[in-house]
UniProtKB/TrEMBL annotation:
It is an enzyme of class 2 (transferase). Residues 43-182, 215-357 form the SIS domain. Its EC number is 2.6.1.16. The chain holds residues 244 to 610 of 610 of the full protein. The active site is at K362 (for fru-6p isomerization activity). It is found in: Cytoplasm. This is Glutamine--fructose-6-phosphate aminotransferase [isomerizing].
Amino acid sequence: EKGGFDHFMLKEIHEQPKAYRDTMLGRVDESGRRVVFQDLKLTEEQIKNIRNVQIVACGTAYHAGLVGRSVIEQLVRIPAENDVASEYRYRDPIVTPETLVIVVSQSGETADTLAALREAKSKGAHVLAITNVVGSSIAREADDVVGTLAGPEIAVASTKAYSSQLIAFYLFGLYLAQVRGTITEDAAAEIIAAMDALPEQVESMLANTEAIKGYAEQISKHQHLFFIGRGQDYAVAQEGSLKLKEISYIHSEAYAAGELKHGTLALIEEGIPVIALATQEDVLEKTVSNIKEVKARGADVMVITYEEHVVNLLKSVDQAFAIPKTLPVLTAALSVVPLQLLAYYASLALGHDVDKPRNLAKSVTVE
Ligand code: F6R
């Protein structure tokens, strides 16, 4: 049942290339320049009238939504905001008929996300669900569904569902951009071609996990660590931190790299591990200066970046892990993989039950 893997989590990490391919299947026309969504109720007229997007979810799905917001803002230039469902449902959210609400849920059964969906609908928003379970409550009650085709996810720690949610956001973001005319066909074709390359790029990372495994063993001796990054790197940092906490029980915090000096820098002391994501090239120098801030306080820094930056970054960090090159808007689909593996191997090194971490359930159907 685990397909030769020791744990469902590792199996599901390895299923990501297939999940990416399956989620894209039939959603790009044969020219490779346009995204197609067959049965959306959301009309082109409605899309043109959208004034704001609210992305609502819990946990890892919320983290996928953080990337989704960045994708939509970059490609479509519509204001988008994120909220966790348990907050959204009780804050009397400001919704108009021109608000598109996107709920994200692997299971489609999370109680708070379902309640948030109902709240948004009752206020007149069009609600689109990104979900992995087509027959779920959330899929049934949403106005539209964009299915992720990750297949059943058994491990409590979500991996392939998260990354397939990213693919869904890329596709849907492209579709909105196409309809609203905020992207040229050439630019869309470039993104689609880069998406087509993602599965093999993930495979190449999965074929070579020794360095991450070694680093996981190193951090498993620590009780606290930090993840830092800017932009989408910050979004992925938050997911990496959650993954590590939930299965290795090592405490970590994800910080927007530029925010550290507003308080948290006080916690950086000799030997504390800091994992810096540095893939967003427009802010690379800014991230490097934040890396230097923590280095100067004795942090032990591991950076995740592109190969071409490794030599230069190694002047300021202790270790570097290179990920394959892609477009800035798509990086999360690659940079999350080493963080999933890091959490997995850290949990393994500490002898925890990787697939069934303490206190947690796969599907949270109570408030
Ligand atoms: C973490 C994890 C949870 C879920 C969250 C939402 O690895 O799995 O944080 O992401 O409980 O669940 P869904 O996506 O089913 O609504």
